[in-house]
Amino acid sequence: MIKRHTVLLVSSIMLTSLYGCSSDNREVATGTASYQKSSGCISCHGGFGNNSTSTKYSPVTGAKITDEWQKSAHNTSNGAACTDCHTNSGHPSGGSIVKAVQDTQCATCHTTTSLGILHFANFTTSLASQFVSQSDPAGVQCRKCHNPHDTTSLIQYNKDWAESGHGETTFSNDGNANNDSVNSHYPWTTSSRDSCSKCHTTTGNLMHTVGGATTLTNNSFNTNPASVVSTTTVTGGPLMSNNKKNETVMCSACHADYSWKRRDIGARTLEYTYDPDFVPGGGSDAFAGAAPASTDGATAATAVQLPDAGDSNLCLVCHSGRGNFQSKRSTRFEGHHAPTGADLYAEYTHVGYEFAGLDYTKPGSFAHSTIGIADGSGPCVSCHMKSTNSHTFEAVNKDGNGVITAIKSQAICNDCHDTSMTAAILEGKALGYKDAGKLLKDYLANTVTNYTNAAITVSSSNVYTIHVNTYGAFQNSLYPTEDPGGFAHNSYYVKRLIFDSIDWLDNHAFDGTITINATNYPDAAKWYGAPDGTTGDYTASRP
């Protein structure tokens, strides 16, 4: 009796397997309409019964493909059955089926209109950026950011990224670049902007990180600042095709494929130089007199080399600045935009204007640049990407008024600060940094009386003739705008830069003290050590 039942059970399993794969008479499946339509495929390729040898695994993720598909909206929302993408012509009964589906198939359902966002619109006249890279063939563009079998489980990462600066596509078309995203406001794909494309397009980024291209600005120093020559050379170019298809900095810039493994690009060599014995000089005014001329020793300038920051090397590609205080004078910030990594690694980059004869050596207690090195994450990833909604890249939560209400990676702070680094304390530091930056700008504007008793401006007409230290103070006044998080990245460094700039502007001498009106600049005074409740003039010493 037992033997007879066993035979019947085995026969039943074999029939089920046969009906599921090699016959059009598939068993009745439950679930969504997409699932029912795909049930024959699943019974054969899902690893069941006698068909386990036909189980299909993703060559990218290693997961069972049928399991991935069942998690996606293609199944749960009746989006697409297996054969909606893998066109079937009589398979498995002697016919054929399309195995390697190209991403162009996605456009069957996902049009630019239905998506409602600029995924793959190929602009030729607009500067609006898109979510695909011109360097990727159409057949693989979608999978650069989506697992084709499970498009849903990680979709929040895509949404968060799209809300970040890396994925923003805003283009106003009003001629004002300030109203556009950083990915859209210039024609980054023109060959003349090859050096810019490293950070404003995925194509240019990958050419630099894995394609062998390099960018380096060499400064030819001279005792006359007006004679400094800066030459930017891009090797491995031209990088872009001049087709006016602007791009976001998308997933493939950091991830090799849809397994989401981060690219290992190694320690970064930056695109500007540092010369340990070059001291910029030049310029004059009626009050401070003539500045010493620039001096240079025997040591040659070399490209700045950062230490290996693990996964954070990916961030340092674009967030390490494009110059430092030895670069050719400019009416813009020499470190360029968002030089957060350059700030963090200031001992190598010297991104702020460091005044001759003053010490900018980091204190022994400074450890921000070593965060996450032990586990391979590095400081950027550890503080900005180890929390929920990691791909917004925000390190803190803020309320509607911009006040810090929570530190997303609080546990990282607690490793060194115990519980002493709270959101409220960090907000106080942010306010102090911002207020000190305002005080510096007010000195330049002569709202707070400076040593010239007149507003100091830097323009193309005087950038080479203005006193070198006054020029340096102007450069440092741009720092809080270009790196709003400087108070957290490297508070010692930015405190000294702003302090020294004010110290020069108040009496054209570095005497190690500045006076802050704590009534007008309460947060700046507190940042520089004033006790709570201080009003009136407060004398601060150099930190």
Fold and architecture overview:
The chain has a two-stranded antiparallel sheet. Strands 3-4 form a two-stranded antiparallel ribbon. A two-stranded antiparallel ribbon has the order 5-8. The model is unreliable at 1-27 (pLDDT under 50). The termini are far apart. It is built from 21 helices and twelve strands. Helix 8 (194-200) crosses helix 9 (202-209) and helix 16 (423-444) packs parallel to helix 20. It is 31% helix and 9% strand. It is an alpha+beta fold and 543 residues long. It is elongated and about 95 Å long. The longest helix has 22 residues, at 423-444. A hairpin with an 8-residue loop joins strand 3 and strand 4.
Nutshell version of this structure?
The chain is α+β, with helices and mostly antiparallel strands and 543 residues long. The protein is built from 21 helices and 12 strands. The longest helix has 22 residues, at 423-444.
Features:
543 residues, alpha+beta, 21 helices, 9% strand
Q: What structural category characterises the helix and strand content?
A: alpha+beta
Q: Count up the helices.
A: 21
Helix fraction?
25-40%
Give the tally of β-strands.
12
Oligomeric state as shown: single chain
> Strands of the biggest beta sheet: in what spatial order?
1-2
Average pLDDT confidence is 90
* Anisotropy-based shape: elongated
Strand content: 5-15%
What's the N-to-C terminus distance?
Answer: 91 Å
Show unreliable segments: 1-27
- Summarize the biggest pleated sheet: 2 strands, antiparallel
What is the radius of gyration?
Answer: 30 Å
